[in-house]
Design a protein that fits this description.
With about 325 residues, the protein is an alpha/beta fold. The protein is built from ten helices and eight strands. Bound molecules: uridine-5'-diphosphate and magnesium ion (MG). The site of uridine-5'-diphosphate has 16 residues, from strand 1 and helix 3.
């Protein structure tokens, strides 16, 4: 009997500190789940440290390890996409390399798919303890806003850590956009998803690659990718301002008839002009956000370039297919 394969997709960017720990852990979990064959798809997102060298070493000793290495840093979204495209398993997991996504959860995730009949099981962080206050607060605001204005199922604390069936993985891969916002895409494709709550785990080593500004930009692209409401905002504001100006007009006529026309009130006029001007800029800015995304989409640029895969790096000695030996384990 051949076992079903579970592919684990792991984006790695400068993870030389955490990768050995992660590899040891995932090997241990793979041993626990001996009803499945494993395939580890590491995507080196243009790391500048020893990440790629480590991956080559793992590959030499362990035939389950596969890797792709990008020509430069293309970002986590591109790495996820490349990994998903490369994954061949009947089940596909995506998880971070820093052990913030506890590999042991895979066992419960597998049960969710196999025994409970879900299509996808995703991890959800229940606490944001240990995260900077501002960051935790803005993340919470973002998820609340997204829940209101975009009709995709996005859960606060949702991580990009999930196990899905081949069907779901194929659905995600068939989404054609190049500006990818995975959290939205996962929700948008639907399917029956089970949420597994777990406590926040600090990084096993190294530093987070996300600055506050990077996260802010990421959330803007998330909104622009999954909500058309900001575009409608311009028209809504226009209509409101139109009615407001009608009211003011009526008021002015009555005042004129009742009190004559004393020349006063230029201050309020200037205020109104500035107000309307700022609204125009706001709406132009919103248009710009969408326009720039359309510009990027229309260019149809490939989301990444691959410089090396495990097939290139297997080594001249052909010592390629060491079966199931887990060295660092
Ligand atoms: N990552 C990546 N490319 C990037 C930034 C991050 O592949 O440009 C990977 C990183 O190696 C890690 C995962 O994405 O495996 C999550 O990154 P990080 O832990 O820095 O994010 P956080 O957990 O703080 O959200
Ligand atoms: Mg992390």
């Amino acid at each position: 009997m051949t076992l079903d394969t579970l592919s684990v997709v792991v984006p790695c960017y400068n993870e030389e500190d955490t990768l050995p720990l992660f590899y040891a852990e995932i090997c241990r979990v793979a041993q626990r789940m001996d009803d499945l064959a494993f395939e580890f798809v590491f995507v080196d997102d243009g790391s500048a440290d020893r990440t790629l060298a480590l991956l080559r070493d793992y590959r030499k000793a362990d035939g389950r390890v596969r890797y792709l290495s990008f020509s430069r840093n293309f970002g986590k979204e591109a790495a996820l996409l490349a990994g998903l495209r490369a994954a061949r398993g009947r089940f596909v997991a995506v998880m971070d390399a820093d052990l913030q996504d506890p590999p042991d959860l895979l066992v419960a995730m597998r049960d969710g798919l196999v025994k409970e009949g879900y299509d996808c099981v995703a991890a959800r962080r229940v606490s944001r303890a240990g995260e900077p206050k501002l960051r935790a607060l803005s993340a919470r605001l973002f998820y609340r806003l997204m829940g209101r204005i975009a009709r995709v199922d996005m859960v606060d604390g949702a991580r990009d850590f999930r196990l899905m069936t081949r069907r779901v993985a194929d659905a995600i891969l068939s989404m054609p956009e190049t500006n990818r916002f995975s959290k939205g895409i996962f929700g948008w494709v639907g399917f029956k998803t089970k949420w597994l709550p777990y406590e926040h785990v600090p990084r096993a080593g190294g530093d987070t690659k996300w600055s506050f500004f990077k996260l802010f930009q990421y959330s803007l692209s998330g909104i622009a990718a999954f909500s058309q409401l900001p575009l409608a905002l311009a028209s809504i504001l226009g209509v409101l301002l139109f009615f407001a100006s009608l009211l003011i007009l009526v008021f002015l006529i009555i005042r004129r008839l009742a009190f004559g026309d004393p020349v006063s009130g230029w201050a309020s006029t200037v205020c109104i002009i500035i107000f309307i001007g700022s609204m125009q800029f706001l709406c132009l800015g919103i248009m710009g956000q969408y326009l720039s995304r359309m510009y990027l989409e229309v260019k149809r640029r490939p989301p990444y370039f691959i410089r090396e895969t495990e097939e290139d790096g297997a080594g001249a000695d052909g010592s390629d297919a060491g079966e199931d030996t887990c060295q660092n384990g």
